[in-house]
Amino acid sequence: MADVKIAVMGASGRMGRVLIRAVCEIKGAVLSGGTEQPGSPAVGADLGTLAGLEPLGVAVSSDASAVIAGADAILDFTAPAATVEFARTAAEQGVAHIIGTTGCSSEDEAAIAEAATRTAIVKAGNMSLGVNLLTALTAKVAAALDVDFDIEILEMHHRHKVDAPSGTALMLAEAAAKGRGVALGEKAVRVRDGHTGPRRAGDIGMQSLRGGSIVGDHSVIFAGNGERITLSHHAEDRSIFARGAVKAALWARDKEPGLYSMIDVLGL
């Protein structure tokens, strides 16, 4: 079977460079292109050189439509507005779209879901194997414990992260709500400040910390009377997300249009 042609959107960013290296390292994948915004100093640069590799003979382009048309799948860890546009273009071209972008609004999510009626989209707040196992475990533990166990989710990321809670924290909160059989929107508590009164039974709390160069730490705490269960994942290298994204691209090659998750990719 021919290699899957994969393009990296936002190729010059921290995650973009890691994605380039992952595509080049994983068997069955070949780098077909990469994009940056018009006017970026990275436009025209060799993608290999950009990622600290030997030159690949493939340059960064500002023409996203052309790059998408030349790919079987695109990897997208950019920003919500860009992701929505890439989703529309990928759907028009029938190109699989792997989305690791976080901070999407409900309107963004609706646009992505519409695009998924025309092409395969894999969207996840986190694409590492460990975090997706943590997500599955969170749902199971939440289902096994009653509301006498309070659920709190704690996440910490590097100082440059612009959205909070993290996409992973929201993914874990959704899993906890699913396990409990409740709607997250009715139970989520994202901010506590001032005289808040006692904690409401059944709430699912999320707290965000920012600082330093932390790639990503997440803990789900089930706090009962006299005992506490903590499920944790600590990311030490962005390559774990990149490898998961490439795995998703290889998996999505022949899939029917639809909105998939890493749980689908990993068979969890």
What features would you describe in this structure?
With 268 residues, the protein is of the alpha/beta class. It contains 10 helices and 12 strands. It has helices at 14-25, 47-50, 64-69, 80-93, 106-115, 129-144, 167-180, 184-187, 239-252, 262-266, and strands spanning 4-9, 29-35, 60-61, 73-76, 96-99, 120-123, 150-157, 188-189, 204-210, 216-223, 228-235, 258-260. The strands form 2 sheets. The protein has a 7-stranded parallel sheet, sandwiched between helices. The chain has a 5-stranded mixed sheet with strand order 8-9-7-10-11. Strand 5, helix 5 (106-115) and strand 6 form a beta-alpha-beta unit. The longest helix is centred in the middle third of the chain and has 16 residues, at 129-144.
Short description:
The chain is α/β, with parallel strands linked by helices. The protein has 10 helices and 12 strands. β2 (29-35), α2 and β3 form a beta-alpha-beta unit.
Describe the structure using short key phrases.
268 residues, elongated, 10 helices, 7-stranded parallel sheet, 5-stranded mixed sheet, alpha/beta
Secondary structure class reads: alpha/beta
H/E element string?
Answer: EHEHEHEHEHEHEHHEEEEHEH
- Summarize the main sheet: 7 strands, parallel
Strands, total number: 12
Global morphology: elongated
Q: Which spans have pLDDT < 50 for at least 5 consecutive residues?
A: none
Total helical elements: 10
Instruction: Report Rg.
Output: 19 Å
Intertermini distance: 26 Å
Q: Please bin the fraction of helical residues.
A: 25-40%
Q: How large is the share of residues in beta strands?
A: 15-25%
Question: Strand arrangement, largest sheet?
Answer: 3-2-1-4-5-6-12
Average pLDDT number: 96
